[in-house]
Amino acid sequence: MLLVLLLIPLFLALQTHETVLHNNATxxxxxxxxxxxxxxxxxxxxxxxxEEMYSILRGGGAESTLAGAxxxxxxxxxxxxxxxxxxxxxxxxxxxxxxxxxxxLKSYQELIPRIAAQQNWVGNVIEVMxxxxxxxxxxxxxxxxxxxxRYHADFIVDGxxxxxxxxxxxxxxxxxxxxQSGNILMIDLGGRFKIHTVKVWNRIDxxxxxxxIGLFVYADEELIGRIVDTKDLYNFVxxxxxxxxxxxxxQSLVKQINLLEVQVFGSGPFGNQEExxxxxxxxxxxxxxx
Length: 290
Known about the structure:
This protein is of the alpha+beta class. The protein has helices spanning 2-58, 61-131, 272-278; strands at residues 134-135, 141-144, 174-175, 184-202, 215-219, 222-226, 233-237, 243-251, 258-267, 286-287. The radius of gyration is 60 Å and the shape is rod-shaped.
């Protein structure tokens, strides 16, 4: 009896354990069934996904629009890359040209001192030439208020002044037409020159040389000499700073003007500012309205 009582709890424990094992087996079977079902669903989803991918690659349906957009985007990226490459090449070309220009500018900078030296040399040469006293009237423009026959004013600066009496041929003179006071002969020097000497060559024919008497010689408005006697050549030396553009001979008496040649010697030409800087005191020169 005691043994039975001892075996009853053991028997109950065994039954309980068997029940638990049976329940566990059932749970395992259910779990395996669920796993199998999940595998089947996964397989089906994989097949569906693969089919969708194939459809996208074949370009069909709504997925084809996405694929086209992707392709367009890829093409646009490639185009942008090409543009960037071309722009980079252009930038390299521009940089190369700029470097060439920089090198050229550097070479010009190296030439600047040489050019400056040459400019100084030319300036010195020009200054020497301007400072040289020389004949400045020959073949310049000439004018007289009237003309007798063919004795034009241009003969006064033609450079011909020989001792020949052929005043209508090889040794021509200038000759005004009207016998009056105030006859004028004028030479335009073409610029403002510093006047040093004016030479007046009288006609050779002694019979009419006295027509030179009464002439006043002006450099613009400055009176630089007058003729009061008869001779072949009159020299009017200017000892002060006189700048003028025109040399004017005015007859104060009732006479014609007939002369062989007028020669003006001077230096220049000069600008107005240079004239003001170079002028000294104009003492001893008479300014007269002509």
